Amino acid sequence: MLIRRIVTVISIIPLLFLFTACSVIGLGKKKSGNGDDGKVTVYFTKASDELGVVLIPVVREVPKDKSPYQVAIAELFLGPSLDEKEKLQLCSEIPEGSRLIKVEEDKKEIKIDISSQFMDGGGSESMQIRFRQLRETALNLAKGRPVYLYIDGTLAQKIGGEGLEIKQPLNDK
Questions:
Q1: Distance CA 128, CA 164 (A)
Q2: H helices, E strands: number in the chain
């Protein structure tokens, strides 16, 4: 049993290296993906027999005329590219049709308003994973500011049919 676990862990190490290598530029410089360098990090999912569903960071370019938050959330809702789906087997728990309504950002706080399609379908596990995708993507850009989630203009308290509680701001655990 112990040997099987060791073999499993050893077989995961190359995968972890691959995912880490995806975020490296040039000679070992890591992309920040926090918007300062014209890039944002978006979190998609990957199924793992050993670890269940894990979040995988993917870096996206931010056009000069766009807000990093708008790009990050819009890209999250678009899902992984065809290439990422095929080569890395990345997925997303975000339901099709989910969209960013608006982002209000100032030096004190960030408010993200998304459509109610975000809550469509899936069970409690799916809801938890999609919320983690959104939370990690949003907090990566926060730079210490509180981030609040709104759904169709209303501060989110619970999401999904089973009522996953949302602590506001999202920075609070």
A1: 7
A2: 4, 10
> How far apart, in whole angstroms, are the C-alpha atoms of residue 145 and residue 170?
10
Q: What is the distance between the alpha carbons of residues 64 and 6, in angstroms, rounded to a whole number?
A: 47
pLDDT at position 172, please? 80
The domain ranges of the chain are: 32-165
Closest CA to 57 of 72, 68, 70: 72
Beta partners for residue 3, in sequence order: none
Cα–Cα distance for residue pair 112/149, rounded to 1 Å: 5
Please give the model's pTM, rounded to 2 decimal places: 0.78
pLDDT tens readout for residues 106-136: 999 999 999 999 999 888 899 999 999 999 9
The tokens of 10 are what?
């050893």
Structure tokens at 95: 């339901």
Is 171:147 a contact under the CB 8 Å cutoff? yes
